[in-house]
Design a protein that fits this description.
The chain is α+β, with helices and mostly antiparallel strands and 349 residues long. Helices cover 51% and strands 9% of the residues. Helix 11 crosses helix 16 and helix 13 crosses helix 14.
Length: 349
């Protein structure tokens, strides 16, 4: 990467230097594109496989087709590349406890109340977030029918950019004036923050504690791990492609039905998707076809929909304790599938 593309050393970018609201994938993307860190270096720093980092970086590169996401990433990229102003000794001592991002209005820190208030309005019937390129503000409108609408809220555009970056809103109408609705992730964030018992129920299978991650901690009588790390990586890879393919917003369906919909390109929804989403759908389709009936259903339920193994057993009418064995066989098959695909390369941007 050329010298002009490197971040200023006085404001060195690390994954932990960004505001708390920045998603992990965006942190990796900016570390790669703005700071010039290689994907292998990021993988070492975060303790995951380089191919996992590559997929997350590609995901955010593809999402830049959305103007709100593109503006949010450009805003963060710009402030990271801007050298900090000269400081006195006292100011340098105070800045040692923070980062340059925390001192720049280009990286606003929104409160939980701000986020919840917007999400609550978007959760109302027929509500949409509307924004245009020349609008410094975003607004939430509610369709009242017969050509009438109600304006529920007007707020700063940067807050809408943050919601899009976190994938809490999804585009339902593209064009010069774009409309967004509450996404499944946004609804989960709203319900999770407003309902503490719901947080406790989901904590077991959160971002770091998926059903596969829980099962991977178990050992057999000989003390061997039930799921080897490479099988967990295969499960994570499928889940990342599933999310990138925008399939996580759909109602759960059997693997056979999803495979048929992907083959015929009849996936429900607006299907407003960048090229990366189409590629991710092809990868999900290839994995499900390789797994075949039975294995694909269990892997889809547990790895993609994050359904517990016991719950999947009951839903599919299988005997107790058979699901984890089938899941392990499915993940072994999935790993072989990914091994045959290989990796395209480990640099992007």
């Amino acid at each position: 990467m050329s010298a002009q593309n490197r971040v200023n050393p006085g404001c060195a970018l690390t994954v932990g230097a960004l505001p708390d609201w920045v998603p992990r994938g965006a942190r990796l993307y900016l570390s790669h594109t703005a700071a010039g860190l290689s994907l292998r270096a990021l993988a070492r720093n975060t303790g995951c496989h380089a191919s996992t980092v590559l997929r997350q970086v590609r995901q955010f590169e593809n999402r830049r087709d959305d103007p709100l996401v593109d503006n949010a990433l450009t805003r963060l990229d710009r402030v990271l590349r801007t050298p900090p102003p000269p400081q006195t000794k006292t100011e340098r001592f105070e800045m040692a406890q923070s980062t340059c991002l925390a001192q720049d209005s280009a990286a606003p820190a929104w409160s939980t109340d701000d986020l919840l208030s917007v999400l609550r309005d978007l959760d109302r019937p027929c509500a949409q977030l509307v924004v245009a390129p020349d609008m410094p503000k975003a607004m939430i409108l509610r369709d009242l029918g017969q050509g009438h609408s109600e304006r529920l809220r007007v707020f700063d555009r940067s807050l809408a950019e943050m919601l899009a970056l976190k994938a809490w809103i999804t585009c339902c109408r593209a064009g010069r004036v774009r409309s967004y609705v509450l996404s499944a992730d946004g609804l989960a964030a709203l319900r999770g923050t407003a309902d503490e018992p719901a947080v406790a129920r989901r904590a077991r299978y959160g971002a770091a504690e998926t059903p596969v991650a829980v099962l991977a901690r178990r050992r057999d009588k000989a003390g061997q791990l039930f799921l080897m790390p490479e099988l967990v990586q295969a499960a994570d890879r499928l889940h990342e492609d599933f999310v990138m393919a925008q399939l996580d917003t759909l109602a759960p369906m059997p693997a056979e039905r999803l495979t048929r919909a992907l083959q015929n390109r009849t996936v429900p929804g607006p299907n407003i998707a960048p090229p990366g989403t189409c590629a991710a759908r092809k990868r999900v389709l290839g994995a499900l076809q390789d797994l075949g009936p039975g294995l694909s259903d269990m892997v889809l339920r547990v790895c993609c929909h994050l359904e517990g193994v016991e719950s999947a057993e009951q839903a599919m009418g299988w005997c107790a304790r058979s699901g984890k064995i089938v899941l392990r066989i499915g993940l072994q098959r999935l790993k072989l599938h990914y091994d045959r695909l290989g990796e395209d390369g480990l640099m992007i941007g």
